[in-house]
Specification:
Blueprint (H helix, E strand, L loop, with lengths): L4 E10 L2 E11 L4 E5 L6 H9 L6 E6 L2 E2 L5 H7 L1 E3 L12 H11 L8 H10 L15 H13 L5 E5 L7 H16 L3 E5 L3 H7 L2 E6 L2 E7 H5 L2 H8 L1
Parallel strand pairs: 3-8, 3-9, 6-7, 7-8
Antiparallel strand pairs: 1-2, 1-4, 4-5, 9-10
Length: 236
């Protein structure tokens, strides 16, 4: 099977401190890959490198053969990669509905969104009640789900989701799990980074264990979670 995304030997340092170290990763079409690891392991930095918000010091990143190195974030988005962030940048003076409409126009389709599509997605993610609210006026868990919808509406080939379960209650976490699985069934490839292992286990086909800026282990979800080194270093 041809890889959707290939990351090969990338590194990133800040002020002489190495955050990503000779990291390689392959994501296959149609899979949900979970990335786990302790705080500071480099998960969010990895996502920002792939999305073009940070530049790699060295190495290669390719989406279906297209090099992402030195591409701007907007160009990477239009190539088919969308991200949500662990800490969403504050966006003021935007209604939720307007943000979602804008995402459609800035994504791969570059078309004005159909109102029915936005409302259907909002119902699926339990954000319908805040569609006409200011983004700055809604709660943090809802903001995370709004940005999940925003990223999806750019029509990505691969969606990177950073700590979507943080702060969500049990019902909304179950809603997100169900939505992710349905999105995968529709053909979307998804990469999740999170500390909520139960929800990751329910969603992911495979997991990668990231520690000290490098991928230490990749494999089927159950195999990775039962690995003695992973359990000792992270789960126990």
């Amino acid at each position: 099977m041809v890889a959707m995304l290939k990351v090969r030997n990338i590194s990133k340092s800040f002020g002489g401190v190495s955050v990503i170290r000779d990291l390689s990763l392959t994501v296959l079409p149609g899979e949900i890959l979970g990335i786990i690891g302790p705080n500071g392991a480099g998960k969010s930095t990895l996502f920002k490198l792939i999305g073009g918000f940070l530049r790699v010091d060295c190495g290669q990143m390719n989406l279906l053969g297209l090099s992402l190195v030195r591409m701007a974030p907007y160009a990477i988005c239009r190539a088919g990669i969308a991200l949500t962030f662990q800490h969403q940048p504050p966006i003021r003076y935007f209604k939720v509905r307007d943000l979602l409409s804008l995402a459609c126009m800035l994504g791969r389709s570059r078309k004005i969104a159909d109102a029915g599509v936005i409302e259907e997605l909002a119902r699926a993610l339990n954000i319908e009640s805040v569609l006409d609210s200011d983004l700055a006026a809604i709660g943090h868990p809802q903001v995370k789900r709004v940005h999940l919808a925003r990223a999806f509406l750019t029509k990505p080939k691969i969606l990177f989701v950073d700590e979507i379960f943080a702060g969500q209650d049990a019902e909304d976490s179950r809603i997100i799990c169900s939505w992710l699985l349905e999105a995968r069934r529709s053909g979307l490839t998804i990469v999740l980074a999170d500390h909520q292992i139960g929800y990751l286990a329910a969603s992911c086909d495979k997991m990668a264990f990231l520690v000290a800026g490098s991928i230490d282990l990749t494999g089927p979800t159950e195999e990775v979670l039962n690995d003695s080194a992973v359990r000792q270093a992270y789960l126990l």
